[in-house]
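Subject: sequence -> structure tokens, single chain

Hey, anyone have a minute? Need the predicted structure for the following. Not urgent.
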Amino acid sequence: MHNFICTHHDIYSMTRMNVVIDDRLEERFRKAIADTKGLRKGNISEALEEAIDLWIRSRVSLVSLSDEPNIEQYRGKYVAIENNKVVASGTNSIETLAEARKENPNRKVLLKLVSDSDIGL
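Reply:
Had a minute. Here:
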């Protein structure tokens, strides 16, 4: 197990977190960072911030998905969610993500396959 220190960059404050994670997960995480961002100073913290943000947004988005008007139309389809709103949908995950990112390739969206439980069935 390894201890990570994550800093949250904000105008007003920075927070330090010590966490313990599985060695294999840590290896996969570092490799993914090296492959996508490179091995520059600050990339681990930046990637952890992105992961934490995505985790939080995914939980909020999943809860609020049930409030989406006409949610039944998305049953069995992939939806791309940004700021608690469906911004694209389709039967293919890659095409749905591409549609959501058409205007902004760096757009951060949550991709979700809508199931019966998501629409309250």
